[in-house]
């Protein structure tokens, strides 16, 4: 017997999946933030990169793998450290934390 999801069940499933992906991105942002603090303590400045693989190499000694996530990650420093997660399937959806605002903030399109 095959079970099929009705429309409302698919919406619930999709909402749960989206929520879980977002939570995973927020946890990763916090991990990157902590790694940045250690990097700055050791090197006197934050590590800035738009390359996710370089972030893994330089902040996590190449151990963590961020490739399986629904978001990509980068660090910038316009005037303060900013760590940004961008949803792969919808690049208008971003979540970021900054040196001064450590709680993840999502864009309105998320």
Draw up the topology in text.
Layout: H1 7-43, H2 52-59, E1 71-77, E2 81-87, E3 94-98, E4 105-106
Antiparallel strand pairs: 1-2, 2-3, 3-4
Protein model, in words:
With 110 residues, the protein is an alpha+beta fold. Helix content is 41%, strand content 19%. It contains 2 helices and 4 strands; from the N terminus they run H-H-E-E-E-E. The chain has helices at residues 7-43, 52-59, and strands at residues 71-77, 81-87, 94-98, 105-106. It has a 4-stranded antiparallel β-sheet, covered by helices on one side. The longest helix has 37 residues, at 7-43.
Name a few traits of the molecule.
alpha+beta, 110 residues, 4-stranded antiparallel sheet, single chain, 4 strands
Beta-strand proportion: 15-25%
Radius of gyration: 16 Å
DSSP summary, beta strand count: 4
Distance between the terminal alpha carbons, to the nearest Å? 36 Å
SSE string, helix = H, strand = E? HHEEEE
Helix content: 40-55%
Strand order of the largest sheet: 1-2-3-4
Global structural class: alpha+beta
Tally of separate helices: 2
Major sheet summary line: 4 strands, antiparallel
Shape: elongated
Average of per-residue pLDDT values: 89
- Multimeric state: single chain
């Amino acid at each position: 017997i095959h079970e099929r999801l009705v429309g409302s069940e698919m919406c619930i499933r999709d909402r749960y999946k989206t929520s879980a992906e977002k939570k995973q991105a927020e946890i990763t942002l916090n991990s990157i933030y902590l790694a940045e603090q250690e990097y700055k303590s050791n090197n006197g400045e934050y590590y800035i990169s738009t390359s996710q693989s370089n972030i893994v190499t330089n902040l996590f000694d190449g151990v963590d793998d961020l490739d399986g996530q629904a978001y990509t990650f980068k660090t910038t420093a316009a005037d303060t450290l900013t760590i940004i997660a961008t949803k792969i399937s919808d690049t208008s959806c971003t979540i970021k934390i900054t040196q001064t605002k450590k709680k993840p903030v999502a864009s309105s399109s998320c």
